[in-house]
Amino acid sequence: MTTGKKTGAQIIIQGLIDEGVETIFGFPGGAVIPIYDVLYDAPIRHILTRHEQGAAHAADGFARATGQTGVCMATSGPGATNLVTGLSNAYMDSIPIVALTGQVAVPMIGNDSFQEADIYGITIPITKHNYLVRDINDLPRVIKEAFHIAKTGRPGPVLIDIPKDIQAAEVRPRKIGSVRLPGYSPLTKGHPRQIEAIVQAIKNARRPVIYAGGGVVSSEASDELRKFVQKTRIPITTTLMGKGVFPEHDPLSLGMLGMHGTKYANYAIHESDLIMAMGVRFDDRVAGNVQKFAPLAKIIHIDIDPAEIGKRMAVDIPIVGDLKSILAMLNQKIQAQDRKRWLNRIAHLKQEYPLTFDHSGPLKPQFVIQTLSEMTKGEIIVTTDVGQHQMWAALYYKTSEARRFISSGGAGTMGFGFPAAIGAQIGRPDMTVVALSGDGSFQMCIQELATVRMHSIPVKIFIFNNGYLGMVRQWQEIFHQRRYSHTHLEFNPDFCKVAAGYEIPAFRVTQPAKVKPTIEKALNMDGPILIDFRIAPEENVIPMIPPGGGQTDFIGEGEEE
Amino acid sequence: MHKMISILVRNHPGVLSHVAGLFTRRGYNIESIAAGETENPDVTRITIVVAGDEAILEQVTKQLRKLIDVIKVQDLSYSRSITRELVLLTIYSPVDKRAEVINTANTFGATVVDITDKTMTLEFVGDARKVNTIMRALEGFKVKEVARTGLVGLPLESQIEGSLNML
Predict the structure, then answer these.
(1) Does residue A110 belong to the interface with chain B, where contact is any CB pair within 8 Å?
(2) Which of A90, B5, B15, B103 is most exposed, with minimal Cβ within 10 Å?
């Protein structure tokens, strides 16, 4: 492969190798056969999923667990459109993915050819950038650019659509230099004057709160953040995406805020006089009503994406740049502080509004998650699907490291958690990976049990089985007079038998007393296993702030109003 | 409030979809859009007029800057820019009305580019104010068809506000 011509497919695989790609998640089809042919001999591991959506989510989970760019591949038409949900999910949470899709041959494009879909057009709104390669000479540059764009600035998914004749064509590839994209140069260093303004604001604040999100994870700024918190003694609440950027066992941690956040986090925000928002976007699940969010506070907003600043929330001190470098600069300038009064108030709030659940009655999902959290000390990787179990996990699973709690935030994609666990496990073979799923969510990507079996991926699957689409049922209970329109999953398969069909061991747990021993057994077993937890069918996620509500507008069972 | 945004983009197929798609997806309304090559064949200039409050208009600009193929985004304030639109307009003008139409056209420097027994097609170029004025002046006649290019614009190099820009 030193001189002479190369096919498009060879250029693609060489490009991936040059980018350090070791694993691809994918599913073959007619329009990617040339690439798969080269892949046959390439030093790249291919994980064959059973659905392209599984491949996209697995690449996403891989990226979240490792901090590297995940790669997935699919054929043209239906193969490509099956990636769409996964791309949208990665886009909403700013996860770096490069997706390769086959396309019908260039002369066939636009003729409604067999297995043709305009995936370039389809994915414009859900990718950071995308390409349709019409000239084989563009291939090396496009691949290099795609990886650069996916990972730099605010990360995101990039799609490359490659017609089959381009894959098969031959050319003597030209050397390419560094990436040159006029107009694309993400800011990294924070403006010194704004940094000075932050230092002053912190000095003057009496009740400051940090609100940290996924941006801290993507900028790998956890260490700098910890230093900053220890020095300034500012209590910190994180979003779902920010879980683990600061140890949740620490007294300064307020856990998660927002619609299903802890009451004390939301009250702290409400009483705060200075909010330091870091790598967050004031999502409506966090700040339901921005008019009522932190009414007494000055707002500092640090983000790498200038368009996030002022998008939902008016900001007093905006600062654009990379959090890691901004926090490092702040750590140099800031002086150690002691905030007895405010921290006493925080301790009081935690005491007054503790996070608890009723242990009586049938098996409680909170109990299962709390047990897992205690048994593992939050040191494993947990992925979640979407719904009630996701929020219970966010509240009761406490972790101390970033990239250990992997969940679909912005898009809320049911079916994400299990394939994401596959990707996370491939990326981190040294770690235990547990996929927390619901009976509804799990059935959206249940076929990936085959992937897990075939590649001996030792993911532990916990299904929180309540026979309902639980979160929707909860909303119907609260907002629609218990009219459970089509949320009762009256027929569920026997998940243990399904697992057996894939030769995966499985257990069923119905009693609280069995929770700990069964989890212990599962964690000590080699290979994949599945546990079907039969949980209380009408348990709700509490606390809850209704959509569009202010930070203290709690509703739900057993509340004071 | 209206805003005119001048966007320099890399001249590839699909770039216009990226730009126009952004407006659709984010729920912004394009009032007019015009695109054409610049002095550099690798670069296209897209001029967009968009309506919205100040916060929306700021978001539009920021979101546009995020697109990878966008090289530069400029706000063109009407008062500090040269803006032009070309309009072709066919009106029903029976022989007895012709003189009146031609008269009106002449007043505004519009050109007659086609005539039949029943219709007359006019061509005129101007900034938004001039175009609106002519359109209003012609309101009394029955309009058959209109084609407008949408505004294009460039910053006013001389930075003299007013007089030159009025035409």
Answers:
(1) no
(2) B103
Alpha-carbon distance values, A293 to A205, A213, A267, A271, B71 (Å): 17, 16, 10, 10, 36
Contacts of B59 in chain A (CB under 8 A): 307, 310-311
Confidence of residue B166 (pLDDT cuts 50, 70, 90): very low
Q: How confident is the model at residue A556 (pLDDT cuts 50, 70, 90)?
A: low
Please write the tens of the pLDDT for every residue from B9-43: 999 889 999 999 999 888 888 999 999 999 999 99
**What pLDDT score was predicted for residue A559?**
46
Q: In angstroms, rounded to a whole number, what is the distance separating the alpha carbons of residues B37 and B53?
A: 30
| A120 neighbourhood in chain B, CB within 8 Å | 14
What is residue A157's three-state secondary structure? Answer: strand
Q: Which of B25, B59, B62 shows the shortest C-beta gap to A125? A: B25
Using the Cβ of A183 and the Cβ atoms of chain B, whether some distance falls under 8 Å is answered with: yes
Question: Is 70 exceeded by the pLDDT of residue A560?
Answer: no
Among chain B residues, the shortest Cα distance to A145 is held by B68
Q: Inter-chain contact B58–A183, Cβ cutoff 8 Å? A: no
pTM as predicted: 0.95
Give pairs for A483-492: CB < 8 Å, separation 24+: A489/A439, A489/A440, A492/A439, A492/A443, A492/A465, A492/A467
State the CB neighbour count (10 A cutoff) for residue A497: 10
CB-nearest partner of B71 from A121, A128, A183: A183
CB of A172 closer than 8 Å to CB of A8: no
Considering only CB atoms, which residues of chain B are within 8 Å of chain A? 8, 10, 13-14, 17-18, 21-22, 25, 55, 58-59, 62-63, 65-72
The pLDDT > 90 percentage for chain A reads 94
